[in-house]
Design brief:
- The protein is an alpha/beta fold.
- It is built from eleven helices and ten strands.
- It has a six-stranded parallel beta sheet with strand order 2-1-3-4-5-9, with helices on both faces.
Length: about 300
Amino acid sequence: MPSGVSMRVLVTGASGLVGSNVAAAAAQQSWEVLDARAELTDRKACVGLAANWEPDVIVHAAGECSFGRFESDPYAAQREYLGAEHTLAAARHVRARYVLVSSDQVYSGRLPLGWRAGERDLPDPVNAHGRAKLACEEAVMRSAVRWLVVRPGEVYGVNATTPQRLGLTLRLVARLQRRALLPAPAGGVRSPIYARDFSQRLCELIAQGCEGVYNVAGPVALGRLAWAQLLAREFGCRQELVRAGSDDAFMRACGEREGVRLAANAGLNDEKTTAAIGAPAIAPERGLALTRQTLTQTRVPVGCSAR
């Protein structure tokens, strides 16, 4: 479907960081957007919502964000899968295109340092979060709908509808603002992407009718320690608060439980995406500057005043 053509888009998870920005980006395209507030574990409710609204596209951006929750809650993966299955059923019922927002955690993390995973690399997740996302992807690929799966790197930025609802990145900044130490491992390479940038790129893929698997990532692959140092610098926090630490120490700082295995190297290569939409993602320094600007405009008090 060419850009500028009107369509109806149903977005799940529109109260979250990714979903709210996807809904906002879709609205900027002059598409009619519906925030899907149905209980996603209720198949009848999902199908009924789609039947009543008849969307052209369903974007499934809802899902559990906590890595630790998948490890500790035996039903977390089941709920994740049911959400995908039931929204797929809704898409089949109204013959809508289906878009799944997955995760870079489906990749193994065992790639050599400096190697960036491409769409042709086989998934091999090392944690429960990645396995749950991969199961959802496989359900999509088995379905009889036109589908698009996007695998983002770490998405950061501001919630488009509820700015005071802080995502992980801004919770880490708030921790630094309180002058609490932030230990982080040098490994754990990811390709962070600004939420608004990610959402605009996703909408361009939808507008162009793209199907298949696409990585959608920022242009720079950073280990968790380097990412934490960049956050401190860009938000004017004390650099000495960021220190080298273990995976467990970092997970505790993120509010997660210990013992969660993190992908050691899940940096993404998104040449396929860049080829499709013809524009690279913005650099993390620019994305963080835009994040600061948005927080200032919305008067959300996240940031540091002393180095």
